């Protein structure tokens, strides 16, 4: 994916270190370096082999003569402007010579070339040397992760806007919840929004399932399996929140993939029931586009926003998926994704994910009909 890069770094003692892209031939040396550098949380030979061949990563090594004395691995999240420093190691006998800084700069350069704006990392709270290096390079602590390491150590979460044009804004405090099934992204996103508005909302599986039962249109394995915007709106209104719904097309929304006429009719009836109940509860339903200006106005007013996106830009699958939008600035919006995408990702990789504004326009359009729908949620006594 990335362009080939090689950097020659001269040191005061006239030794020269080369920073270059990883090659398949480096595998054994990487495993040996990992054994020398870490007692726990080691990457396995299988992991190294996977990442050497993988796409959507930046993987560089530090070489002195014929020996690999350091490496850095950055992994990308498709469809977003976010990258994560997954692992970095420098041989202990060359620590303090500036190689770590040079390696980080090379990784950042390659990550920017791959189109990413932000680089995140985690570092053990007791690792003062590494924390000092990252802070000196512009990384800022934005959270922590308890018991992150195998030794039960805690980690700081740090982030840097690695492209000069990107601005680091303080991201808001916003609770995050991981959906516990493949089909409860809507309830998980709704719980995050409700919990950010009210401390009385307890984000746990029983509520997740209750919300799904109230909001889904699925019928005997027909339908898309997830939750309807009007169903989620009714579930939020039932719990004392004020909701406004944006849908850019008339109902029905989720029947194109239902082939059997009886099942299709049933799903259509469920959607009609949602629409009728929304009218009875005086829930505003605007059959119009929810554009970036409306999104910005909603967030600035203190409301919370849920948006239905297509996961195609992220994972190649055209699946409707609910997320909570947490913030917006001049270049990006930020979202909480209730789904942890892969085994190599951590929960905080799914929090405040930066998405370029232009990219979000594509992301928030689902299916052949280009469905765009969003919920604006606020406290019941909130005045617009």
UniProtKB/TrEMBL annotation:
<keyword id="KW-0808">Transferase</keyword>
<dbReference type="Pfam" id="PF00583">
    <property type="entry name" value="Acetyltransf_1"/>
</dbReference>
<dbReference type="InterPro" id="IPR016181">
    <property type="entry name" value="Acyl_CoA_acyltransferase"/>
</dbReference>
<feature type="domain" description="N-acetyltransferase">
    <location>
        <begin position="17"/>
        <end position="163"/>
    </location>
</feature>
<dbReference type="GO" id="GO:0016747">
    <property type="term" value="F:acyltransferase activity, transferring groups other than amino-acyl groups"/>
</dbReference>
<dbReference type="InterPro" id="IPR050276">
    <property type="entry name" value="MshD_Acetyltransferase"/>
</dbReference>
<dbReference type="InterPro" id="IPR000182">
    <property type="entry name" value="GNAT_dom"/>
</dbReference>
<protein>
    <submittedName>
        <fullName>Acetyltransferase, GNAT family</fullName>
    </submittedName>
</protein>
<dbReference type="Pfam" id="PF11814">
    <property type="entry name" value="DUF3335"/>
</dbReference>
<dbReference type="InterPro" id="IPR021770">
    <property type="entry name" value="DUF3335"/>
</dbReference>
């Amino acid at each position: 994916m990335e362009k080939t890069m090689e950097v020659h770094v001269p040191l005061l003692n006239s030794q020269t270190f080369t920073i270059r892209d990883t090659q398949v031939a480096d595998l054994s040396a990487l495993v040996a370096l990992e054994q020398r550098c870490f007692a726990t949380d080691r990457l396995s030979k299988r992991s190294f082999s996977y990442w050497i061949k993988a796409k959507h990563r930046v993987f560089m090594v530090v070489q002195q003569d014929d020996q690999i004395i350091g490496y850095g691995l950055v992994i990308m999240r498709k469809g977003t402007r976010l990258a994560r420093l997954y692992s970095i190691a420098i041989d202990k006998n060359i620590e303090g010579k500036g190689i770590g800084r040079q390696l980080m700069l090379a990784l950042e350069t390659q990550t920017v070339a791959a189109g990413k704006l932000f680089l995140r990392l985690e570092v053990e709270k007791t690792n003062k040397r590494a924390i000092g290096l990252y802070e000196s390079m512009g990384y800022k602590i934005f959270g922590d992760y308890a018991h992150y390491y195998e030794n039960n150590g805690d980690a700081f979460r740090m982030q840097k806007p690695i492209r000069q044009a990107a601005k680091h804004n303080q991201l808001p405090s916003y609770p995050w919840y991981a959906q516990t099934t493949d089909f409860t992204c809507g309830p998980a996103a709704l719980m995050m929004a409700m919990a950010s508005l009210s401390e009385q909302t307890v984000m746990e599986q029983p509520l997740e399932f209750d919300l799904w039962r109230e909001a889904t249109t699925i019928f005997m394995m027909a339908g898309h399996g997830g939750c309807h915007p009007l169903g989620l709106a009714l579930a939020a209104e039932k719990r004392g929140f004020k909701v406004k719904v944006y849908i850019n097309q008339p109902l029905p929304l989720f029947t194109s993939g239902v082939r059997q006429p009886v099942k299709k009719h049933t799903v259509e009836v469920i959607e009609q029931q949602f629409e009728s109940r929304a009218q009875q509860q005086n829930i505003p339903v605007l059959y119009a586009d929810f554009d970036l200006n409306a999104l910005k106005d909603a967030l600035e007013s203190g409301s919370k926003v849920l948006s239905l996106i297509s996961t195609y830009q992220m994972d190649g699958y055209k699946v409707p998926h609910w997320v909570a939008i947490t913030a917006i600035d001049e270049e990006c919006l930020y979202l909480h994704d209730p789904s942890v995408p892969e085994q190599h990702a951590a929960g905080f990789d799914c929090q405040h994910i930066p998405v370029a504004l232009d990219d979000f326009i594509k992301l928030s359009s689902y299916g052949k009909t280009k469905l765009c729908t969003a919920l604006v949620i606020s406290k019941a006594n909130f005045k617009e």
